[in-house]
Write a structure and sequence with these properties.
Layout: H1 2-31, H2 36-39, H3 50-69, H4 83-97, E1 112-113, E2 123-124, H5 125-150, H6 157-161
Antiparallel strand pairs: 1-2
C-alpha cells in the first residue's frame, strides 16, 4: 500500500511536472522572454520561488521513500538555474524512486520517522505518509503549478493530473 501511495504516485506526478515545465519553456520561447523570469517567480513575497518549490517537491519524494524504506537518499546541491537543470533533477529523483519495490516498505507503517526540523520528535511511518509527506509534496507541487499558471503558462487540470486509468 505505501509503495502505491508514495512511489507510484510521486513518480507519476513528477512526470507530469516535467511535461508542465516543457510547456513553460515553450511559453517563454513563444513570448520571447528568458525562462529564468518564471523560475524566479513566486505567488507572494514570503513564499519560495518556482525553482525552490520544485526542489522541495523532489526532496519530499526522495526523502519520504528513503525514510520509509530505511535507505540512503541521493543528495542534490540545490543549484539549478534553468528549466533543463530542474528537469534533470526531477528525472534523477524518478530514477531513484524506480529502484524501490513494494517489499522495500516492509514494516514502514510502524517505523519511527524523524527529521532534523522536528528536534528529536518522531511519527510512525503511517502518520508520516498521511500527515507530512503527501501533504507537503502536493503543497509544493500545486504551488509550482500555480506560479506557472499565474504567469500565463497555458496549463490546466489535465496537465496537473496527467493520464488517468479510465476504463
Amino acid at each position: 500500500m505505501i509503495y502505491d501511495t508514495v512511489n507510484a504516485q510521486f513518480v507519476k506526478m513528477l512526470q507530469n511536472l516535467t511535461k508542465i515545465l516543457d510547456k513553460a519553456a515553450a511559453y517563454s520561447e513563444t513570448k520571447k522572454f528568458d525562462a529564468e523570469v518564471l523560475l524566479r517567480s513566486r505567488l507572494f513575497p514570503d513564499q519560495f520561488e518556482l525553482t525552490r518549490q520544485i526542489q522541495i517537491v523532489c526532496d519530499t519524494a526522495k526523502l519520504a521513500s528513503s525514510r520509509l524504506a530505511a535507505k540512503e537518499a541521493p543528495v542534490h546541491a540545490d543549484n539549478e538555474k534553468s528549466i533543463p537543470e530542474l528537469k534533470t533533477r526531477i528525472e534523477s529523483v524518478i530514477s531513484y524512486l524506480n529502484t524501490f519495490r513494494p517489499e522495500d516498505y516492509a514494516g514502514a507503517e510502524q517505523r519511527r520517522i524523524t527529521q532534523t526540523r522536528w528536534q528529536g520528535k518522531t511519527m510512525s511511518g503511517h502518520e508520516y505518509v498521511n500527515q507530512h509527506a503527501i501533504p507537503n509534496f502536493y503543497f509544493h507541487l500545486t504551488t509550482a503549478y500555480a506560479i506557472l499558471r499565474h504567469n500565463g503558462v497555458e496549463i490546466g487540470k489535465g496537465d496537473y493530473l496527467g493520464p488517468l486509468p479510465l476504463v
